[in-house]
Specification:
With 536 residues, the protein is mainly α. Helices cover 47% and strands 5% of the residues.
Length: 536
């Protein structure tokens, strides 16, 4: 049958009376039915139309019986069509072309409601050969001497890697230049590749750096194909080796086991954040170096040694150092490397926090003037208006911003979107759309490096605009929460509800606001020391 013209008037099918745009006198279903069956008298409607010779009914009566079976909910052997054909006493008319796509569009009716499972995309299989030539000796490859005139672009591994790079690039939004660089790097690395051979990261780094090609994206492609031998020394290992240098063997073993347990976790301990691990060892290292000059093992450390360390320190430094030593000796006591914990029942005292003071207007103005890029202006608005931590700003997703309903989700808390923040979000989204139109990163704020990835920006990048300013993102967050306590009253419950603070932090802000409201600092500067570095 021919194609139905878009301007053809609607009509009724001569076979089933279906109404719609028809290719001729019959709809497509009746036309096919007439090609398969001969014309006869229908036993139901008594018309002379194509009928099925097995039971003597036309397509219209058969469709009515089929609808009756579905309405009755009959399945299995009881769903025989003959009893329902004999009970047909009326005809339900219908529209034509409701089960077939029109002009290449989506399917209509029942077919359009049916959800088909997508066909699985076959994963490219790495080519195999019946034999592999083993290396006689391990010799480093000098990729800087690569000659493009001797390259082999027909290598099956190179073709597989390029197809994988194209797939990753389309999913991550790689630019055209990055894709070209990765293809050229893969040609350098895999043009003479043998099955079973892996590319060492150290060799790849030196070779690709010589040609100025993208190393990170190329390594990602090779790693997904299991062609990369990452022989780099982890940064944590080199840092740990440097920090433990100078300790005696006994103290070094216990300290190293303690640090690794903090990072990786243990049978009854959770892994800590890597920044916490760094802080703990940096805090304990001077004390361990002093003890290494006198002792060979931590079991020789006494209570008097810990008290001597405590008495030499003051304020937050003393409180934190004693907490770190408690963690160290608790771990050693748990593993049985010491007989007695020398830090038991040692009181460090209550830590006195300084008064939190609001920022000066000129400091806030300097921070605003320093925020010249759309990303810096958005981060500034989130910190100064919504008291968002830099970590929350970095991990904010596009789905967390609801411009239509003027809602913003920060740390699982829904907040109203004010006009200033909304303008900052719109300005950043326009810049992001123009700069990286194909990026697939789900985070709101992206950079030149993360636009071709799915990870958030780094903490150094997000705070770079305000580095050296008195009003940093963290200080702006503290100032916003203090401002709320000063304007709405020093109520800890209100602060906890608005910003999601825990009770201890909310009480600190309320106490600082109450102290400022009851006794202005300008009247007695000596009574209330100015401390701007406190960031609860």
């Amino acid at each position: 049958m021919g194609k139905i013209s878009a301007d053809k008037p609607s009509a009724s099918c001569a076979g089933c009376f279906a109404w719609g745009q028809l290719p001729g006198r019959f709809c497509r279903g009746c036309y096919t039915y007439g090609q398969q069956h001969a014309v006869g008298k229908c036993a139901g409607c008594r018309r002379r139309v194509p009928v099925n010779q097995d039971y003597g009914y036309c397509r219209l009566c058969k469709a009515q019986a089929t609808w009756a079976i579905k309405a009755a909910g009959v399945t299995g052997e009881a769903a025989s069509i003959m009893p329902f054909l004999r009970q047909v006493s009326h005809q339900q008319l219908f529209f034509a072309n409701m089960q077939r796509p029109r002009n290449g569009g989506p399917a209509l009716g029942k077919e359009g409601r049916r959800v088909l499972k997508p066909r699985p995309v076959p994963e490219p299989v790495q080519p195999r050969t019946p034999w592999v030539q083993l290396r006689l000796a391990e010799a480093p490859r000098v990729l800087s001497r690569y000659d493009h005139r001797r390259r082999d672009l027909t290598n099956p591994t190179l073709d597989l890697a390029r197809r994988r790079a194209r797939t990753i690039g389309e999913a991550r939004g790689w630019t055209r230049w990055v894709t070209l660089e990765v293809n050229r790097a893969l040609a350098i690395l895999l043009s003479g590749h043998m099955p079973g051979e892996k590319i060492r990261y150290s060799e790849m780094f030196e070779g690709l750096r010589h040609f100025g090609l993208n190393i990170k994206r190329t390594a990602e492609v090779l790693d997904q194909l299991d062609l990369l031998d990452d022989d780099r020394i982890p940064t944590f290992e080199s840092w740990l080796e440097r920090k433990l240098d100078g300790l005696t063997d006994g103290i070094r073993r216990d300290a190293e086991d303690w640090i690794r347990t903090l990072r990786d976790g243990g049978p009854r301990s959770r892994p800590r954040d890597l920044s916490t691990v760094w802080t703990y060892l940096n805090e304990a290292r001077p004390v361990l170096l002093d003890w290494s000059a006198r002792y060979d093992h931590l079991r020789e450390v006494t209570r008097d040694d810990v008290l001597a360390v405590r008495d030499q320190l003051e304020g937050a430094k003393r409180h934190h150092t004693l907490s770190v030593l408690r963690s160290l000796f608790r771990h050693c006591k748990k593993n049985g490397t010491i007989f007695r914990n020398p830090t038991s029942r040692i009181r460090v005292g209550r830590q006195d926090y300084g008064v939190i003071l609001p920022l000066d207007p000129h400091e806030v103005r300097a921070a605003v003037d320093a925020s010249t890029t759309p990303a810096a202006q958005l981060a500034l608005a989130l910190a100064a208006i919504h008291a968002a931590r830099p970590k929350i700003v970095r991990e904010l997703l596009l789905d967390d911003v609801d411009l239509g309903n003027r809602r913003l989700t920060l740390a699982s808390r829904v907040r109203p979107l004010d006009d200033l923040t909304r303008d900052a979000v719109l300005g950043w989204l326009d810049y992001r759309r123009q700069r990286w139109p194909n990026t697939a990163n789900p985070h709101l704020i992206v950079s030149q490096h993360t636009a071709m990835d799915t990870c958030p920006v780094s903490g150094v990048w997000i705070t770079n605009a305000l580095r050296g300013q008195a009003a940093t993102l963290e200080r702006l967050r503290v100032d916003r929460q203090l401002e709320e306590a000063l304007t709405q009253g020093p109520d800890p419950l209100h602060l906890a509800e608005v910003f999601g603070l825990d009770e201890t932090t909310a009480i600190r802000y309320a106490a600082a606001a109450r102290r400022i409201l009851e006794r202005p600092l300008e009247a007695d500067p000596a009574a209330s020391p100015r401390t701007r570095g406190s960031t609860p």
